[in-house]
Amino acid sequence: AVERSDQLNELYRLLTAKEFQTRMEGVLLLLNYSKSSSELISTNIVQIFDVFVLRVQDCNKKVKQKALEVLALMVPTLGDALHPVLVSLVGAVTDNLNSKQVGIYAA
User: Fold this and answer.
1) What is the reported pLDDT for 104?
2) Which residues contact 35 (CB under 8 A, 6 or more apart)?
3) DSSP state of 101
4) 67 vs 1, 5, 60, 104, CA distance in Å?
5) Residue 92 contacts residue 68 (beta carbons within 8 Å)
6) Number of alpha carbons in the 13 Å side-chain half-sphere of residue 29
7) H-helix or E-strand containing 104?
8) Nearest 5°: phi and psi at 91?
9) 75-103 per-residue burial string, b: 16 or more CB within 10 A, e: under 16
10) What angle do CA 8, 85, 13 make, to 5 degrees?
11) pLDDT per residue rounded down to tens, the chain (107 residues)
12) I want to staple 22 with a disulfide (CB 3.0 to 4.6 A). Which of 17, 79, 105, 106 is the partner?
C-alpha cells in the first residue's frame, strides 16, 4: 500500500509540475503504469484523470499532443475502467478537434 501511495504521489507531482518537460514525464509515467499496473490506475481512475485531463488541455502544445497520443494508447488497456471519467475526457478531447496544430488535431 505504501508503494502504491508513493507511485501515485510521484505521478501527481509530475503531472502537476510547472515545467512542461516534467509534465511530459508524468504523461509517459501514466502510460507506463497503465501497461504495467493497470489495477493501480483503474482503482484510482477518477483522482488520476482529474489531473490528466488538465494535460489534455495543457497550454503547452507538446504536452497536449503527448497526452492525446498517450490517451489513445491507454484506452484499449483501461477499457471499462474509463467509464467514470468519460464525460470529462470527451469534453477535453473535443476541445482539441479545432486545433490548428496538425499534431494535436491528428492525435
Assistant:
1) 79
2) 77
3) -
4) 27, 23, 11, 9
5) no
6) 20
7) helix 102-106
8) -60, -45
9) eeebeebbeebeeebeebbeebeebeeee
10) 25
11) 778 889 999 999 999 999 999 999 999 999 999 999 989 999 999 999 999 999 999 999 999 999 999 999 999 999 899 999 999 998 888 887 777 777 877 77
12) 17
At position 42, the amino acid (one-letter code) is S
- List of long-range contacts for 98-103, beta carbons under 8 Å, 24+ apart: 101/61, 101/65, 103/61, 103/65
Q: How many CA atoms lie within 13 A of 66 on its CB side?
A: 21
**Set of cell numbers at residue 61:** 502544445
Nine cell digits for residue 56: 489534455
pLDDT of residue 100: 75
Residue 30 has, within 13 A of its CA and on its CB side, a CA count of: 35
Instruction: Match 483501461 to its residue by C-alpha cell.
Output: 78
Which residue type sits at 52?
F
Task: Specify the residue for cell string 502537476.
Answer: 16
